[in-house]
Write a structure and sequence with these properties.
The protein is mostly helical and 290 residues long. The protein folds into two domains: 70 residues, no CATH class; 202 residues, MetI-like (MetI-like fold), CATH 1.10.3720.10. The protein has 14 helices and no strands. The chain is globular.
Length: 290
């Protein structure tokens, strides 16, 4: 009992957090760096509640009397709601396809040993060096032959193909670190390979799936280059392509542009906040008892 009290007294005497000069300097740098991200976002949303002339004359003042004219114009005049839904459909579909196919392929590469495995892995890494714009012509010809140009699939399939390699490499590297004891225990419990993937590897690998989904969603959601080429029809046009047209058709209406961009960033913030807790988890924390 005396030893326990002595340990407690030592812990109370020793401060848990020490603020020295280096720590204070680090926090100051992080605070200033956060302002470079937070302030532009605040400036954008703040100007979205101003008229265009107010944005030009007083863009750095707070909108004391906010107006909703820009948002009503965005939905009424340029039909941003349809493009918004199109972007969500194509981006979410891309994420689901990439995670399903990439997760299965990563499981095979990480946990199976077969001839040509190292060669296949090297080919996957090499494909990351190929720029996406160099494959536009053959991809476009394939989409024409399949008859899916100016459709949802005309953008979902190219996005899936371009992001699949990244997902496979990231997820396979994560799955390779999972202890072999889990796999042996699953075999003893009568699990086959498919059950092992869905019941053991998939729950443990949720952090890496969450990280991959964020990157894939961002790349698919913000891909203006592919959107302008593969889906230039108004009925399936994503929101990034619509923003490029707003700058030309309504170039002087900066309030409308600010409101349109503010609407665009909402899904990115929601996706990140929703799966942030999975990213912060450890690799296999609590997977093995004892």
């Amino acid at each position: 009992m005396q030893q326990i009290q002595s340990v407690i007294s030592r812990r109370r005497a020793t401060p848990s957090t020490r603020f020295n000069g280096g720590t204070i300097f680090t926090y100051i740098c992080l605070f200033l760096w956060s302002l470079t991200t937070i302030y532009p976002l605040f400036w954008l949303v703040n100007n979205s509640f101003k008229l265009s002339r107010d944005v030009m004359n007083n863009s750095f003042t707070i909108a004391i009397s906010p107006v909703l004219t820009n948002y009503t114009t965005a939905f009424d005049r340029i039909n941003i709601g349809k493009s918004y839904v199109n972007s969500l459909i194509m981006s979410v579909s891309t994420v689901l396809l990439v995670l399903i196919m990439g997760g299965l392929a990563a499981y095979v590469i990480a946990r199976f040993r077969f001839r040509g495995r190292s060669v296949l892995y090297s080919i996957l890494v090499a494909t990351l060096l190929i720029p996406s714009f160099s494959t536009v012509v053959p991809v476009y010809e394939l989409l024409i032959k399949w008859g899916i140009v100016n459709t949802y699939w005309g953008l979902i399939l190219p996005h899936t193909a371009s992001n699949l390699t990244f997902a496979i490499l990231v997820i396979s590297g994560y799955m390779a670190t999972i202890p072999k004891d889990l796999e042996d225990a699953a075999f003893m419990d009568g699990c086959n390979r498919l059950n092992m993937f869905s019941r053991v590897f998939l729950p443990i690998s949720r952090p890496v799936f969450a990280s991959a989904s964020i990157f894939v969603f961002l790349w698919a959601y913000n891909d203006l280059f592919s959107a302008l080429i593969f889906v230039n029809k108004d009925s399936v046009r994503p929101i990034v392509a619509l923003l490029s047209e707003i700058s030309s058709q309504y170039g002087t209406d900066f309030g409308l542009m600010a409101s349109a961009v503010s609407i665009t960033i909402i899904p990115i913030l929601v996706v990140y906040l929703f799966i942030q807790r999975y990213i912060e988890k450890g690799l296999t924390e609590g997977a093995i008892k004892g």
